[in-house]
Design brief:
Layout: H1 3-16, H2 25-29, H3 34-38, H4 48-68, H5 88-110, E1 120-126, E2 131-134, H6 135-159
Antiparallel strand pairs: 1-2
Helix pairs in contact: 1-5, 1-6, 4-5, 4-6
């Protein structure tokens, strides 16, 4: 099997599928109210809502980097604040925006060719902004990012 279908499978499993590690990202968000998502049960830690906004930022950034085949700056704020009007409709829209960003990412991945996976984005490795890695590493990193934050959401959810 070619590598791109495997990577797409991993992205889908991590976001909303049967992830090997446990619940997918979306599974950890099911049934959370806006108040729960905005809560800070651990004051210095980010809220679930902030995590979702952060993930959307990085999914959009990864997609743009794929489409432009270039290291572009982060698309938006790394850790956007929860909107002032944090009601149920806005929370649902935040989740919808993340799902749409994920779908746009999948579309960008589907446009790739196997040879693109070795292309390096950025001249040197900068861990903070995710540059200097191949497209292959970027895509696996995005799947890992979903699951890393799914774990955080699962823990925070137990506290709210």
């Amino acid at each position: 099997m070619a590598e791109l279908p495997r990577i797409l499978d991993q992205l889908e499993r991590a976001f909303d599928g049967d992830a090997w590690s446990g619940p997918s990202l979306l599974a950890t968000l099911i049934g959370l109210s806006a108040a729960q998502a905005a809560a800070r049960p651990i004051p210095p830690a980010h809220s679930i809502w902030e995590i979702v906004l952060h993930l959307r930022t990085w999914v959009d950034t990864g997609r743009v980097r794929l489409e432009q085949r270039y290291h572009v700056p982060i698309e938006g704020e790394d850790w956007p604040a929860v909107p002032l009007l944090a009601d149920e409709a806005v929370w649902q829209q935040t989740q919808t925006d993340l799902a749409k960003a994920h779908e746009r990412l999948l579309t960008a991945v589907q446009a790739l060719h196997e040879k693109d996976l070795d292309e390096v984005l950025g001249a040197e490795r900068n861990r903070a902004d995710g540059t200097g890695v191949s497209i292959y590493v970027l895509l696996h990193g995005l799947a890992q990012h979903y699951l890393y934050h799914a774990g955080q959401v699962a823990l925070l959810r137990k506290l709210v």
